[in-house]
Amino acid sequence: MRNKIRHFGIALTSVTKGSKLYYGWLAFLATVILIGVVSYSFQARHGFIVTHIRDQVSWGFYISNFTFLVGVAAAAVLLVMPAYLYHFKPIKEIVFLGEMMAIAAICMCIMFVTADLGHPERVWHMIPGPGRPNWPSSLLTWDVLVLNGYLIINATIFFYVLYKIYEGKDYKSIMPLIILSIPWAVSIHTVTAFLYNGLVARPYWNASILAPRFLASAFCSGPALMILVFQAVRRVSGVTIDDKAIFKVAELIAYTMAINIFLLGCEVYKEFYSGSIHLAPLQYLYFGLHGHNNLVFLMWLSFIFNVSALIIFVIPSLRENFTTLSIGCALVFLGVYIEKGVGLVIPGFIPDTLGEIYEYMPSMVEVGVAMGIWATGALIYTLLLKFTLPIYHGTLRLEPKPASQS
Amino acid sequence: MRIFRLGLLSGLFLTATFSFFAFSALATGEETNPPQAEEENPAKFENEPATFIELQDAQEAADEEAMDDVEEELVPIPEKPGYYRNPAGEIVDDFGIIMRLYESPNACARCHYSKEQYEKLVLRWDQSKHSKNKVTCIKCHGGNDKASTIAEAKSAKTTDFRLTKPSLLTLHGEELFAKAFDYCGQCHGTIYRDWKAGIHGKRTGSWNGDKEYWVCIKCHNPHNPKIRQIKPKPAPIRPARLASKGN
Amino acid sequence: MNGHDNGQKKVSRRGFLKAAAAAGAATAAAGCGGNGEIDFAEFFQSHFKEMSKDEVRSVIKRLEDKYSSKYGKQFTVKATEPMENVLFGYALDLSRCIGCRRCVYACVRENNQSRDPQIHWITVLRFKKGEKWMDLEESEKYYSPDKVPEEGYFYMPVQCQQCKNPPCTKVCPVQATWTEPDGMIVVDYNWCIGCRYCMAACPYGARRFNLAEPGLPKDEANPNTHYLGNRPRYRGVVEKCTFCVQRTREGKYPACVEICPVGARKFGNLLDKDSEVRYIIEHERVFRLKEDMNTQPKFFYFFSI
Fold this sequence. Notes:
The structure holds three protein chains of three kinds. By secondary structure, chain A is mainly α. Chain A has helices at residues 2-14, 20-46, 61-74, 77-85, 89-92, 95-115, 139-167, 175-197, 210-237, 243-274, 280-286, 296-314, 316-319, 322-342, 364-393, 402-405. Chain A is built from 16 helices and no strands. The two termini of chain A are 25 Å apart. Chain C has two domains: 1-33; 78-305, 2-Layer Sandwich (Alpha-Beta Plaits), CATH 3.30.70.20. Helix content of chain C is 29%, strand content 15%. Chain C has helices at residues 3-31, 40-43, 53-71, 102-110, 167-171, 197-201, 245-248, 255-259, 276-283; strands at residues 76-78, 88-93, 123-128, 153-158, 177-179, 185-187, 208-209, 224-226, 238-239, 265-269, 286-287, 299-302. At the B-C interface, β4 of B face α4, β10 and α9 of C.
């Protein structure tokens, strides 16, 4: 037992030790987090008037980022499935990287939602008992439930497996939880989609295709981000990542990207061919409406990114070349970030329910807060990784195996 | 004279309708019952009896014709477009209705003349729908615009209008306000009905208790009843310009 | 274990949870405290519907003191209960409305809306006659001619439609907004967390968010208020039209009905066969906005001519 505590201490202190690059990275993140904190305190002091959120567009950049990150978190399941269910070894070795990303992404989600609240100190009103959660009627209570549940499940699996590896024991007993995490990952994204989907007032969201589109885009952008992060981690931390694992993930992106673009096409066809008044938001996005066209450029950019990424991922020789693969991943990430961040939440409000067009663009404060939250997410990921590495490398084991000591 | 002509015309019309009916009945009687042929050609209905609407159309056409006849004998008055002098020397309007009261604002103004009164009442009235529809002073106020003395003018008996008594000549202030709907309601029947039900006009006070019913002339100036244009309150501030000065 | 014990245990657990929440809350409140100290009594205030009569009284006392000192005049905060057998309904005659926006500003005065940043509960839309029927996208909210009504246009004021099947209360994660027995949809400004989900859900754009500390000048504040209605609001909460709950529960007409210069606005009890609204629904050709959404508003529009 004393050994265990001491080893925990070692793992914890290893977080504070590192190369110049590591300290530089931490300093950079701290600076960005500071920007976020300053921005948020500015918003907390003056209210939402310092953002560009108005009655017409009542959700903005925060909720957009939240939506995108739910996708990233859900995408961890793409590693969990081949790793634990099919025991695909190359991925099994790196599945903890994916779980860490899920943890970091969920933390960011929670921060984004909190930043979007007018009265964050009143969140206890959602806790059953002292509060009055409107469950099961409100999808937001469902979302709180599944997101926190997903965080707990992933954190439990991650730390339990890590502990068992450290003990050098088998971690099969956690398998039920791992299996549970797979539908749970789908559920966090479905529930988030239903959050928008169920609103009769917003025809743009009130389409059955919304949840499938959500999932498809999540399963492209999440893995794309993972591939980028894996390459960076491989370069700086000495974790060995089999190329096969990365190529497998890249192959998955090819499928999900194709599905994503197909579903987008379905939606575009239905809206433009039937040409009802519900066309307005889509028209606003891709062609502009009544002379308002702030988002047109971004949306076409996103479309071009997505299509060119699809081409890269569909051709095996391109996706198995690390330069084009990285470009492809960056394209997917940016493409989906725009598509989902800008092209999903905001056009639900444009035109608003009374036909008014207010062209929303995030204010400096909103961008600052968002940057801070992203940096916090990156910090969480970095620290978790640093904490994990000694155990992963085998330098920290309860009973060191003779083989790994040599 | 006119009545006689109208009678003649309607007699003629009735005869025509009757013979049309008779002819149609005869014609259908002649047909040897071909229901299949009818189904094949549903557009063929010349032999069907005239519908109520068709009869009404015919009546209207006949009326118009009669009107045209009247017009022929009327001499237009150049200074008053739309008005004519009939053979008896009376002023009549498009419909042949004798408008001996048309002159009334001018006639009334013989005594009731001041710049203020003229501008406030007559001029306003002149621009109103009441003027266009020949609702003249005495239609509401009563009195006699052919009078030469004040006493004679106040004897309302000479008017042939339906207005309730007492005449507005003797009503003033509160009393006038309280009674307004009695007068307006005689011509504006449907609006009077709506007002009584609470659809038209304004009510204030208590939704489940005492209400104040706003009478006609509280919103409508009887001399020009149309609701006048007013300056709107400022438009809301656009979202992009919304900012708190306080903070 | 009998029921009484159960209740006691529940209370104590609740107390514990509240105390446990305090630590976290204190930091959160300090982070976003903005102006002024943290009011713990306010922070721990229960949901309006869960409060006992005594609790309501003490909360009202606290609020009255706070508002009175803030605005320099004696405030009353009522909690008038809904009347029996009353379901409020509204009718608006589009043939008569002249688009003068008198109602908008009467509402602001009566209901203590923030003047800066500006909050209006009523939106008046202008439509061109003879074009597409009620295409909201073609409507104009910011018209400002010298004189109204303008030739060739008609006007449609939109405010909370007090739906029978309201999408807004359905989505609220904390039940901070609900339908009262007399049909009015209200917000507990002390319970709302400001997530604005209800604003996304409302098909009528009827809900407003306090983007900043409400700017309500002292001399313009209306001291006659209702807890669920026009009492001064907080920054970061959602508010909406309540058919002037502070007036209508005392038998008075809403402020917008009182001010309308052409008598286009009609208000009354839908359960009363002799009410004006009932007469209008039965005798006029009424319609409700966005009927296809099945929100079943208790707000009826009609053309009397």
